[in-house]
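fold-stage: in
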Amino acid sequence: MRRPPTSLLDDYCLQLGSLLDRRHTERALTGARQKAEQAAVLAEEAMVQAQAADRAKTNFLANVTHELRTPLNAIIGFSEIIQAGGATGDHAAYGKYIHEAGSRLLAMVNDVLTLARIEAGKVELDEQTVTLSEVIGASIRPVANEAASKSISIVDDGGGDVLVRLDPNRMKQVLVNLLSNAVKFNRQGGSIRVSAALEAAGTPVIHVRDTGNGIPPDHLGRVFEPFSQVEDHLTRENEGIGLGLPLARAMVRLHGGDLTLTSQVGIGTLAEITLPASRLSSTSAG
């Protein structure tokens, strides 16, 4: 069936309608594009502000901790003079208490300062070629007395004769933090086992396993958040400001590796330090 002929007016109306629809679509697309561009500008401004706030926080922490270290060093120094000066009775006890409290506070301040410097990208590694067993041995000694006071055994399971290139002082601090936590949250008469190995892919790994309280699954995700505490501040029995694990992970990541935890409540916790295969010394690899 043939279409009826259309008039010039009909053709004009059709063309006009198409033109109006196209212009409406173009306006809608232009409006959407402008809104997207505005949203991108706002998002970029928000990111810049967040980065500035983060830098300000890091600088504030660095400045405050730096200012605290000077008087703390003086307090610790004078307390040592009191103890060395032959003080007796209460004076000797006061000197010892001041020294212990000052040293503990200085350690916390140093942790805050180190974490702030890592976040600001101002920490460089002093790399040396060492065996993992050397680093593990140097890390066990500082916590041995604390462990003995709770009748906790620290066992080096060996496997650390692997030569790696890393900053031994930084890695020692990582292990001391992990071992201190393992002692702090362990039961009387418990145990801690430290081992090192070279995985099949050539990846150096260090394990720290304890028989402590364990970490609840819903808390395991936030133990690496700075200043976070698994236990409530009113009920927890152990001191600390929640920087040990975040600082340990940050230092491992400076080496290109990672620190992970697996834990079971009432059974214990396993901390695993994984270093990249590139950290393996060519001597070991050969």
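fold-stage: in (second)
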Amino acid sequence: METLTLQERLLKVQTELKAPKNQYNSFGKYKYRNQEDILEAVKPLLAKYSLNLIVTDEVREVAGLAFINATVKIFGDQNEPVIEVSAQAGIDPDRKGMDIAQSFGSSSSYARKYALNGLFLIDDTRDADTTNTHDKPQATAGKEALPKSGAKFQKAKEFIKNGGSMDSIKAKYQVSNQVEQLLLS
């Protein structure tokens, strides 16, 4: 029997992996996959190709923003390299309807799912859970977001104060509801 390298075995797993979307979001009415679906689907392939998988995460902070950094490592025997992929997800401790543990757990699951997606080449760009806006306005492509403070914000506020229209500002900038309220106040 031919001995395959780690990269060749990983390629076989990536090619053979079928991780169905077993979850259903009744609010958004779409099917999606979560990290558990991916892990359940990949375990037999890991065994088949003598590969080990470790998934870890840690809390990090950059510029006052807390986030989960999830890392997925795949390896074979001790003489082979380790391949690793990381993904991040922000933590919102004030997320409506969640206590702090649920907020951290949700961010952990999200980051781990996307680290697994990266390692196993799972493309979620067509998944409804990546395109569903959950009734939030989508970003307008090509437009810079108007910040809620600073020189650009002050210039826009002065423009409104002097009789300028919000539509004119929105033609140039992406304006969130919060920024619009600040401009009009």
